[in-house]
What we know:
The chain is an alpha+beta fold. Helix content is 32%, strand content 31%. The protein has a 5-stranded antiparallel beta sheet with strand order 1-2-3-4-5, covered by helices on one side.
Amino acid sequence: MGSIPDFNEAELWAVRTALAERYGEEREFELAETELRLDKHSTRLVPCPTVYWRDGACHFVVCKTGPERYRCNFFYRVHQVFGTGIEEFDNLTECVVTLLQVQADHQREQEMSD
């Protein structure tokens, strides 16, 4: 597998827009790189362009795993990593919005159980 292309301007705009809609204002995010195992049957780690942001104690990552392919999760601590239940998305906006919705639901459930 060749190198995975970085997020392009249209993809970054999609992230900015989804975050602004969720938080009611423009939010800062960082570009990073995450090593992922893209093939379940291989131990090879592949460097993937990543968008990272934080909201309070919660950290969010959206990794680009190929052209129009994205994986995401959120976490509070290293051993508290949560996903959306969808392994990979082919639409970045859907990926970010779903991630934000799942995290909001998780946070609401945690607050109700406290």
